[in-house]
Amino acid sequence: MKGPRFLMAFFVSLLFFALPASADTLQQQIDKTPEGGTLKLFDRDYMETAVINKPITITGGDETLLMSDSDKPVFTIKDATDVTLKGLRFLQSGSAVVVKNSSHVKLDGLEMIQMFSGVQVYDSSDVTIKGLTLKGIDGQFASKGYGLAVFKSNDIELSHNNVTSVQDAYYLEHTKNVTVTDNVATDSRYGLHFMYADGIKAERNTLTRNVTGIMLMLAKNAELRHNKISIQWDWNSSGFTLYNAENIVVEQNTFSGNRTGILSQTLTNAQIRNNVFSSNQTAIEFTAADKNNTVEGNDFVGNILNIRSDGSDSIIDKNYYDDYGGNDIDENGVGDTQYVALQSFGQWMVREPAYQYFIESPAVVMLNQMDKQTNRVEKNQLVDSTPMMEPTSDFKKEQSFHIWALLFGVIMLGGAIFLWRKGVKQ
Amino acid sequence: MMKKKMWLAGAMAASLLLGACGDKELEARDINPATDICKICNMSVAAEKYAGQVALANGDYETFDDIGCLMEYYNKTDKKDIGEAFVKDFSGEAWVEVDQAIYVSDKEISTPMSYGVIAFKTTDEAQKFIDSEGKGKIVTFEDVKAMDWSGHA
């Protein structure tokens, strides 16, 4: 009798030993990996969630795909240090990674598709997120989550990430020492959204087709440089909105095709210098509560309104304006007469945005001409007493000559004339 | 006879017109997250459960993404210009008049501008939120009005 029992026990135990390791859950695989070790996930789909609370590196294979089976994030990194997630793919989940109360966390080359939100970081320090791509779900931005969101954390680096179709692509609240470089944000509500932040460096980011490129609110000590801000063109859009902010440097950015390039409200000690504003409806809008701001060395090209304000006392100096009509007799590169950006209609538009629909109407054009005459004696409001005769940037060099578009236009024009002549002869 | 009918029609038309001139009841309007922005901070009103709005006496509306922004506007605006002010009930779909709402305050309650105040239609709902979240305390409209709503970096 003992024989069959032994045999049965032997075969059952064999069965368990024969189970492949790939059948382990995500959590089991993490638990089995020693502290400081590297876990390479299998080339299969994981539909589960896991918690990481020890030093570990997790990587994926070409076919590894991670999904959450609940409203929890796929990975929760909690009370941990030295955690790295690298080369993982996430699909159709509420959230991919949540980091809580941790430090020295690196998320490298993660890919997220059709996600409500991507990564949330809370109460952590020394977090680096780079090379991440995230595509959100379809629909209106109010029904979506944030791409990468950081709360109450310090020493954060976000670089070379690409986030699209979410509510706010990069959201940072109550953060200190944040560096956001070489990121892309498109088709979202706000590209970069900073709130209650101190010590921000945002450089070389490309922000396109969002409601607002950079939303900087209740923040101080920010450097916004070399960013490309284009086609923020909705009813309430702007390239940058600087609200209740102080000590802000806005330098060498390119603003093109935005409803408003820079919209400011209660802005203090901002230096807006060496930027290019091209083809915006309004390049810069100040409000009365703004104080001690400088607009210097910028190029204003092809904007409908260059600067408008409802009464701020900003310093405007040494900018280039393509609609400046003065001369430079002494050839020192500086116009001999002042440039006045003041336009009655522009002032009204600050107070009532709906007036934007009357721009270039005959009455407004006439009003602008009258303004040009009266502006000759303006001494204070929106006056640049040293307007530059040439662009201060290499803006002109960037203009490409579209030979094929020209050729196509000439051929179409020739064809139209030919057909018209033929019609007249008949 | 014809003249009498004309007088009657004229009197009816006049009464209709005069009726239209009377005080109209001011109601909250729907929020459109794509176009409505906060009058104070310029943020879009994307999360309605934190929102507020003011129906001005002249028929215009101002919208707010956070009760803090609403109160900043409310406190500095002449009350003659404010027809009615509303906050959104956090646990439902209803708009509640600001002086009728029950407020819960805690700096740990996440709101769009981090002011940490949300509104409820009833005290029961407010208490239920406090019990389930383990944070917040009930405050009155007078308390909310007296809070410091000036944002600071």
How would you summarize the topology of this molecule?
The complex is a heterodimer of chains A (426) and B (153).
Chain A (H helix, E strand, L loop, with lengths): L1 H17 L7 H7 L5 E3 L4 E3 L2 E3 L3 E4 L5 E3 L7 E4 L2 E6 L2 E3 L5 E4 L2 E6 L2 E5 L3 E4 L2 E6 L2 E4 L11 E4 L2 E6 L2 E3 L3 E6 L2 E6 L2 E3 L3 E6 L2 E6 L2 E3 L3 E6 L2 E6 L2 E3 L7 E14 L2 E3 L3 E14 L2 E3 L3 E5 L7 E3 L2 E3 L3 E5 L5 E3 L2 E2 L17 E2 L3 H8 L10 H13 L8 E2 L10 H4 L4 H23 L1
Parallel strand pairs in A: 1-4, 2-5, 3-6, 4-7, 6-9, 7-10, 8-11, 9-12, 10-13, 11-14, 12-15, 13-16, 14-17, 15-18, 16-19, 17-20, 18-21, 19-22, 20-23, 21-24, 22-25, 23-26, 24-27, 25-27, 26-28, 27-29, 28-30, 29-31, 29-32, 30-33, 31-34, 32-35, 33-36
Antiparallel strand pairs in A: 37-38
Chain B lengths: L1 H19 L31 E5 L4 E4 L2 H10 L5 E7 L6 E3 L4 E4 L11 E4 L2 H11 L3 E3 L1 H6 L7
Task: Looking at this protein, list some descriptive labels.
A: alpha/beta, Pectate Lyase C-like, eleven-stranded parallel β-sheet, B: 153 residues, alpha+beta, three-stranded antiparallel β-sheet, elongated
Tell me what you see in this structure.
The complex is a heterodimer of chains A (426) and B (153). In chain A, 17% of the residues lie in helices and 41% in strands. In chain A, the strands form four sheets. Chain A has a 23-stranded parallel sheet that branches. In chain A, strands 8-11-14-17-20-23-26-28-30-33-36 form an eleven-stranded parallel sheet, with no helix packed on it. Chain A is elongated and about 110 Å long. Chain A has one domain (83-403): Pectate Lyase C-like, CATH 2.160.20. With 426 residues, chain A is of the alpha/beta class. The N and C termini of chain A lie far apart (114 Å). Chain B has one domain (26-146). Chain B starts with a helix and ends in a 7-residue tail after the last helix. In chain B, a hairpin with a 4-residue loop joins strand 1 (52-56) and strand 2 (61-64). Chain B is of the alpha+beta class. Chain B contains four helices and seven strands; from the N terminus they run αββαββββαβα. The chains are: A alpha/beta (426), B alpha+beta (153). At the A-B interface, strand 27 of A face loops of B.
